[in-house]
Specification:
With about 250 residues, this protein is α+β, with helices and mostly antiparallel strands. The protein is built from seven helices and 17 strands.
């Protein structure tokens, strides 16, 4: 499990430090702080952030709007403009690159946390492939850069799908069981299944999806995952056997 990785681009050292402290105070991790536009592209590639906080005015060289436009050509990432500039011409230019958020300085922890969560929700909506199942609880879970994000204790936690053992339906909620912890999220199992299916998960029962990596044995009506016994339906068992190699 890893915290959300955020890259900050800000040319004022004191402000950069303040934003960095805010990011960490609300429960996320700063993977890089960049104060020169010439280093943004290389750091972005190395840091591989989950979200980008970008100042617009960076002194000499390209401004934040131009930089974001180029960065998004290499890899799409949620990004928020953090700036003191709110004039009409700046806003119009910023809108042209479709930011996921826009925060005017000065701001506090709550302003920043709200902007980050809204940015992820917006990014999820605008980058959802046509035909994907929609759900009112979808905002609670995000699949960004092949990691699964869930809301836990008022912040987003990044989970590697490889660390998830199985998920179990519980009324209108789903329990996600990992190698070291259990999380409860307000999404139906069908939504979780759709997001995790590309990572090697399979529905074994109306109430369970399982990670193929952790299935240790298969019996007539049950499977074992990390010493945990889970039920398996007849149809699911037939499908499961097609996914495993038998000697």
């Amino acid at each position: 499990m890893k915290q959300l990785q955020i890259m900050i681009v800000e040319d004022e050292p004191i402000i950069a430090q303040e934003i960095s402290m805010m990011v960490e105070d609300i429960g996320y991790q700063v993977c890089a702080v960049v104060m020169h536009s010439s280093k943004v592209s290389q750091t972005y590639a190395q840091c591989n952030p989950d979200l980008l906080l970008m100042d617009i005015n960076l002194g000499n060289g390209p401004d934040g709007i131009t930089l974001v436009e180029e960065l998004m050509k290499t890899r799409k990432t949620p990004f928020i403009f953090v700036t003191s500039y709110a004039d009409k011409s700046t806003l119009e230019r910023a809108k042209s690159v479709n930011p996921d958020g826009y925060v005017i300085k000065p701001f506090d922890n709550l302003d920043l946390q709200a902007a980050i969560e809204i940015a992820f929700a917006r990014f999820e909506q605008t980058n959802t492939p046509a035909g994907e199942v929609e759900d009112a609880t979808k905002k609670d879970n995000f699949l960004i850069n092949q990691h699964f994000f869930i809301r836990h204790k008022n912040k987003l936690i990044r989970l590697n799908p490889e660390n998830i053992l199985y998920a179990e339906a519980s009324s209108n909620y789903t329990q996600i069981v990992t190698t070291d912890q259990t999380y409860t999220v307000s999404s139906h199992l069908a939504i979780i299944e759709q997001k995790l299916a590309p990572a090697g998960f399979i529905r074994i029962h109306r109430s369970f999806i399982a990670n193929l990596l952790y299935i240790t044995s298969v019996e007539e009506d049950r499977v074992f995952i990390d010493k945990k016994c889970l039920p398996i339906s007849r149809n699911a068992r037939s499908l499961l056997l097609k996914h495993i190699t038998q000697l």
